[in-house]
Amino acid sequence: FIQLLGIRTNRSTDPQDLPKLGRQIEWFGLRYFLPVSIVTFAAGVILVSQRWQFSQLWISVAMLFWLVSVIIGALYIGPRSKKVAEMFEAEGPTSSEARAASARLFMVSRIDLVLFFVIVGLMVWKPGSS
Predict the structure, then answer these.
(1) Is the separation of the CB atoms in 29 and 73 below 8 Å?
(2) If both were cysteines, with which of 23, 80, 98, 108 could 85 make a disulfide (CB 3.0 to 4.6 Å apart)?
(3) What are the pLDDT digits (tens) for 6-41?
């Protein structure tokens, strides 16, 4: 969702759109994405315990990637989104420094998205399971 919104915002001709996005990402991250991620993880634990073993490699890797994603979100994406928004507020919507920081933020967010694609792939194909 954030990637799609970021792409749309980057293509916007309104210089005010990108500064607003940082605050939106921060707000949604804390109030929506983090709780949904925790609920999804809990549901996954319940489903795994019904049929699979936590010692299976595909489950361990998926759990590790989920943890990495939570850490990236909590320690980088959330706080950095707030900082980028503050930079835009202080320097204006055309700030090159804030725009560069925003671009780095979206790159890290894309890496995080790749982690989720790998997690979904592991859950679908269950490599090495019997």
Answers:
(1) yes
(2) 23
(3) 888 888 888 888 888 878 887 888 888 889 988 988
